[in-house]
Amino acid sequence: MGKIRKLLFSVVLLGLLMTFFFVLIENQQAIYLPVYFISMDDYPVVGPYIQTILFWLSVFFIGLAILLLLITIFYPKKSNTLIIKGKNGSLRVQKSVVENFVLESVKKEPSIENPRVKVKMSKKKIKIKIAGGLRKTMRTAEKQNELIEQIRHEVSDLLATDDAIKTEVYLKDEQENAAQRNRVE
């Protein structure tokens, strides 16, 4: 987890912790506790401002909860099977079939060493990520774009459909990432 994510996550959790702590203080009379906390208004520095702070923290967390609920409801479902409907019936294409097909196609390419293929499928979209060591001849953007277009075309030919199935292909050079890691260490 990156530093910015940790910072944002910590700020949200700190706000949530403050909100719950002051709700606990206000409602401590509901049950018997061996410890009694002082009233919210008696806390130094934040005492006079605590009601305003709690109001805005509550508004923020309500908005965050609604946003997370909407994301949860409308986030596209990922599956291991793509169903293509045709005139004569339907065709189910497994994720592993597309991975193996693309892997065999990439293995024929002499410019990529140790290729790995990962495929993510949703209802009308296929994302293909190809990772491997690119040789110097393959590091030009023109060569990479040619390979990406070739694979996109081969996958659409494999599926043989008129539907609007969006195919995205990404190419990642692992040697470049390994070289950068070695320089940093």
Q: Quick check: average pLDDT?
A: 79
Known CATH architecture of the largest domain: 2-Layer Sandwich
- Topology, number of strands: 5
CATH topology of the largest domain: Alpha-Beta Plaits
From the alpha carbons, calculate the radius of gyration and give it in angstroms.
Answer: 27 Å
| Residue windows where pLDDT falls under 50 for at least 5 positions | none
Tell me the β content. 15-25%
* Widest sheet: strand ordering: 3-4-5
Q: What is the string of helix and strand elements?
A: HHEEHEEHEH
Number of helices: 5
Helix-strand makeup class: alpha+beta
CATH classification, class level of the largest domain: Alpha Beta
Q: What gap, in angstroms, lies between the N and C termini?
A: 19 Å
Give a quick account of the main beta sheet: strands, pairing sense, barrel closure: 3 strands, mixed
Total domains? 2
Global shape: elongated
**What's the name of the CATH homologous superfamily of the largest domain?**
Cation efflux protein, cytoplasmic domain
Estimate the helix proportion, in percent. 40-55%
Structure, explained:
By secondary structure, the chain is an alpha+beta fold. The chain has a three-stranded mixed beta sheet. The protein has two domains: 72 residues, no CATH class; 104 residues, Cation efflux protein, cytoplasmic domain (Alpha-Beta Plaits). α1 packs across α2. A hairpin with a 4-residue loop joins β1 and β2. The chain is elongated and about 75 Å long. The two termini are 19 Å apart. The chain contains five helices and five strands; from the N terminus they run ααββαββαβα.
